[in-house]
Amino acid sequence: MDVDKWDYFARDSQHLGLLKGFDHMQLIQHARVINVKGDPKSQVVHGLAPFPPGGSADNDDDDVKGELQICYRDKEWGNVHDMFATRARLHRKAYQHKVKDAVEMMFLDALLEADPILLLEDPRPGKKPKKMSMAIDDMAVYTNLTDQIFLRILYSKEPELENARKILQNIMTRELYRCVAETGPGEWYLFEEFASTPLGLADKIAKSDKSGKIKAEDIGVKMVKVDYGKGDPIKNARFWNKGDPDKAFELKKEDLSQMLPVKFADQFVRVYCKKQGEESFQAVKK
Q1: Which of 69, 162, 260, 283 has a CA that sits 20 to 30 A from residue 209's CA?
Q2: Is the pLDDT of residue 44 over 50?
Q3: φ, ψ of residue 159 in degrees (nearest 5)
Q4: By C-alpha distance, which of 183, 179, 9 is closest to 95?
Q5: H-helix or E-strand containing 66?
Q6: CA torsion 30→255→186→87, rounded to 10°?
Q7: Cα(255)–Cα(249) distance, rounded to whole angstroms?
Q8: Backbone dihedral angles phi then psi of residue 28, each to the nearest 5 degrees
Q9: What are phi and psi of 140, to 5 degrees?
């Protein structure tokens, strides 16, 4: 549980017109740093280095290993759960919304089209310009890869950039790639099958088109995973109560509520048609 989430949850919820769903100030007021001992999962879940063998924090026995963790008052378990539910809701309604994914896919296609033509200047004397795709290995060139690249392509005049320019113009006029279908919760096996090779699904769909009008490059595939982070947030967090505020413990979900979810992740596949026109859309849909 990192505090940068609290910052962008509040910011994005406000600008999207969504309720944040949890009170971060309440969590701050009821947080304590406690030495958690004998927790084999803590090193993985919380990512904090344990105390060295033979050493511990505060007044604990020296022969007990432990690590410092931020723990929350037991009555705030609902607030902790709501924070991760807010995360999942923002991913579903914004960060991984189907329209956002369509725009992202189009922008990527435009960059790929422009990559061989649109070069980035190297600020160092005597150095040649480089492709955008090579900038990741050269920080001096990478500093020139800013949001301005969108406008450079959009308002370009070079004939070689016509395809890239057309894609960005379609974004501006909202002629977006259309989402043809999305798998349901019971079709998780498709996510597992094509997660590492999404282009394999596009190729499979194209081959099934008997009309021959659809090619694999006309199909976009997006693997989507919406979850609470690292599983059950209540199970992974540690709590304290006012009777013994220096002792951390784990809450059991079954002792808290019958209404808490059993699963904490959804994963599904979205298929997009990149070609404009109802005929192409229906061909992919079939």
Answers
A1: 162
A2: no
A3: -60, -30
A4: 9
A5: strand 66-73
A6: -10
A7: 14
A8: -60, -45
A9: -65, -40
Any idea how long the chain is? 286
DSSP code string of 206-264: HHT-TTS---GGGEEEEEEEEE-SSS-HHHHS-EEETTEEEEEEPPPGGGT-SSS-S--
User: By percentage, how much of the chain surpasses pLDDT 70?
Assistant: 88
DSSP string computed for 74-116: GGGHHHHHHHHHHHHHHIIIIIT-HHHHHHHHHHHHHHHHHTT
**Rounded Cα gap, residues 207 and 272, in angstroms:** 16
At 130, the amino acid letter reads K
What angle, 0 to 180 degrees and rounded to 10, lies between the N-to-C axes of helices 98-114 and 162-172? 160
pLDDT in tens, 100-151: 999 999 999 999 999 999 999 988 998 999 999 999 999 999 998 999 999 9
Token pair of 250 as six digits: 């784990």
Q: What is the pLDDT of residues 4-13, one digit of tens each?
A: 888 899 999 9
Do residues 236 and 230 make contact, with C-beta atoms less than 8 angstroms apart? yes
- pLDDT tens digits, residue range 177-206? 999 988 877 776 777 777 777 778 888 888
Answer whether 0.70 is exceeded by the pTM.
yes
